[in-house]
Structures are given as structure tokens and as C-alpha cells.
Amino acid sequence: MRLTPARLLLAEQSSYYLHGEDEDAIFESAEALLAAGVPDAVRIRVDINELATVEQESRNQGLFGPSICYALVRNAQSANPKQSEHLLKLARTVSEGNRLIICAPGIDWKKALHKKMKSEQLIAECEFSKPDEAAFARWLEAEIKKSGLNVAPDALLWMSDRLCGMRLAARQMIERLGWYDDGEGAEIGLDTVSELLGERAPGALEEWCHAVAMRKPFALTLVRRLLHEQQVAEVQMISWLGTRMQQILMYRWFQSRNDRNALQAARVFGDARRKVGEESRVWKGSELALAVKRIIDAEKLVKGATIEDRPVVIERLTLDLVERERLGA
């Protein structure tokens, strides 16, 4: 059964197959499908090698009778033939009340799994084509208006061009613009937007991000230079470092799944393309997750969740990421 993205949430099917080139839209819709429905349903997200978890949760009888299970499979495009057959069997036999959402961004149209999923009448199939620039620009403008920000037209156009199709990155950018504005309502121009997005900055800022990503003590010297000598805004430093560490984390994730182009899949751009591979080898997977969490916590403090000076927050964050013992504490 073929559905359009606009009709997806209106449908009440047991199995969904989401595919196409717009990866962010696929996962955004998948999360919406996962969240909709019975409030107390068990909701799980799994990779293609964890299908047994879906079977276990969906067949769980529980102490007070059977429970409802909604499951999201994140990377069906990576399935081998055996996993493909297993996934097809699950999709055809979803129990009443349960829900299975299968995501396959960028799947090869010649792949057997793709052909079989599309031919199944019991599976709601929806394709998310390459993002339309005009549609993305309208979506971005609506999101910015919803946030209450006043972004200059040329800055909005520039953001739309740079972030086209990357909805998650756009939402993160809007959030950081909100922290920068701090409720003042002043017009945010192109200079500010380009600095926060990582296009214009002192050369030492990229050098600092790389030093932190490589866990070099020299990062502590650079952070003081940026804060005290060059007067770089703390929110800009958080934006750059947060983007870099998320890129490393996503690069490692796609690389572990043997993606043909992990850099492209992780949306790594600019100078980072030459450095992320080397930087990723410095970190364990568990450390990367802790590092991203530590940056998110620092973002909240920079936003105003503490009376502590913002430069101190950035300096301590740098120290936490560079020294292995502090990150694990």
C-alpha cells in the first residue's frame, strides 16, 4: 500500500516501510509514528541485527496480560539476505495492535528487500524523495517564526541553502540562535548566523575543535586564547564543538555498519572531512556518548542554567573532554 508523506500519520497500519533520499524526513516521520497511538505501549528502537528483540517484546505476555509493542528498525538498508527474510516475515505477521516501522534511507532500488517490501499489500510504503529546496525554505521559515526569532531575510536564505534537507541540524541551529538572542528580539543578521553555523570564525576556533577532538592538552591554551584574547562568543564555541563531536559519533556509527561513504552519511563538511577519520580513532564509543552528553550539559549552562561565568564553563568542558579520567567521572 503506497502512501504519501502527508497521509502517513493518517493511516492506521501495522507495518510501515519508509525509504528514499531524505534521511532526516524519514526518521522524523518514523519517530512520529512511534510516538502516536496507545500511550502506554512499549516503544523500542533497534538496528537490523537486533530483530530478535522485536519478537521478544511483541510476544511478551506480561504479568497482567499481553502488552502492545511499537518497534522502529533504523537501518534496514544494511540487511543481509538472511536478515531481509527475517524482517519480511516480521512485517507480514505483526499482531493486531502492535506496530512495526522499517526505515531504509538510501536503499538501492535494485535490492531484493526493497522490491519485496514495495510489493506487499499489507505494508504501508512511503518514499521520501530528495528534499525540495523551496519546500525546505518554507519549512525553515515557519520553524523560525514558531521560535519567535527575528532572522534577517538574507540570513534565512543562507541557512536554507546550507542546511537544505537537514531538519535536525536546522532545529539545533534554531535552538542555538535562541540562546544567542536570549529573548531580546533583535534582528539576527548573516554575520551571526554564519558564525554559529561554522562558516566564519577565528582560525584558532577550528584549531581548538581539532585539538579537543584529538584530546591534546594544547586545547587548554587555545580555549583561553579564544575566550580572553579574541573574545569569541561562548555559544559559538559550543556550536562548533558540539557539531564536531556529533559528526565523529555519527561517522563511527556509519563506519561500524560498513557504510560505503561514512563521511557523507554523517553529514561531515568543510575542513572536518580531512580530520574526522583521524579524530574518531582517539575515542571509544562509550566515551563519545559521554562527550556529547557533557557538551549538551555545558550548552544548558551557557544558556543561563547557572550563575557561573560562561568562560569558566567552556574551560572546564575542554578539560573534561581532554582528560580521560574526568570524562568518565
Brief summary:
The protein is built from 16 helices and six strands. The chain has 329 residues and is α/β, with parallel strands linked by helices.
Protein traits:
alpha/beta, Zinc Finger, Delta Prime, domain 3, six-stranded parallel β-sheet, DNA-directed DNA polymerase activity, transferase
Detail the poorly predicted runs.
Answer: none
Radius of gyration: 22 Å
Strand order of the largest sheet: 1-6-2-5-4-3
User: In total, how many beta strands?
Assistant: 6
Order of helices and strands: EEHEHEHEHEHHHHHHHHHHHH
Structure description:
This protein is an alpha/beta fold. It has 2 domains: 2-128, P-loop containing nucleotide triphosphate hydrolases (Rossmann fold, 3-Layer(aba) Sandwich); 134-328, Zinc Finger, Delta Prime, domain 3, CATH 1.20.272.10. Helices cover 56% and strands 9% of the residues. It is built from 16 helices and 6 strands. The protein has helices spanning 23-35, 51-58, 81-92, 112-119, 133-147, 153-163, 167-181, 190-197, 203-213, 218-229, 234-256, 262-265, 276-280, 285-305, 310-322, 324-328; strands spanning 2-3, 15-20, 42-46, 69-73, 99-105, 123-128. Strands 1-6-2-5-4-3 form a 6-stranded parallel beta sheet, sandwiched between helices.
